[in-house]
Amino acid sequence: MIRAIQEPCRRLAIVLFGCWTCASPLAGEQPQTHRYRQAGSGGPVVVFEYGVGDSLDTWKQVQGEVSRFTETFSYNRAGHEGSPPALGVRDAVSVVQELRVLLSERELSPPYVLVGHSLGGLYMQYYARNYPDEVAGLVLVDSTHWEHYDRIRRAAPSLVTEASPDQARRMPEMVRREMQGVELSGNEVKDSAPLRPMPLIVLSAGTPSETSLPPQLGSQVRRRRGLRPEFWLGLQRELAAQAPDSRHVIVRGSGHFIQIDKPQVVTEAVREVELALRGK
Q: Which of 112, 107, 148, 123 is nearest to 54 (CA)?
């Protein structure tokens, strides 16, 4: 389920850990092209992608821990704070192409371990399916399924409604634009080649919650509650079925933002993939 955080406490995290507008940015977070955070050493490099309406700060704790055992990279997509304006449709094709250019500019060599939350997980699935030589492993954190809205329409058509013009106007621009591209991104993933065999761990929320949602997105959770939990877990199981020997973990006590509620679970999933790739 796609959710977003726009809370003052999340913005405070930017100030505490390094702010794009500060006169002296912290090491590893440079005021050039996109806002990004690069830390650690070793490989494969772990690349983090956040969900709609969020920022690289959602990965602050997890990235800090993962950077203890390998090099890491997180960034703000085009159109988000500290990054260039977003041009054109915000779909998986555009986002992944921009990310590949940015990784090349930072001289970060593939193959990567990709970690994607929510909509970011959908983008990372597109990356892994279309550029298999550049991806060594994948961790999906309560990721969006490629047929997310289509499945809801088929299961419970009355639960899917379009945002009213007033609701759309109140949404932050990039939330609106990225949400408008969700179905296109899903189709791009669906129409891609199957995921090649690689280490894959799917982490799924065990406790759906709407406490971290802004008002304009809260109705999505209320609609979600109109379907049984088995429906959502079924989608998550399909994500895990993309690769043989994958692992699907239901994270008890965590809502959609597993990287915030249970950061150690995400860190250990990344570590497990890294160790598998190193043959340990």
A: 123
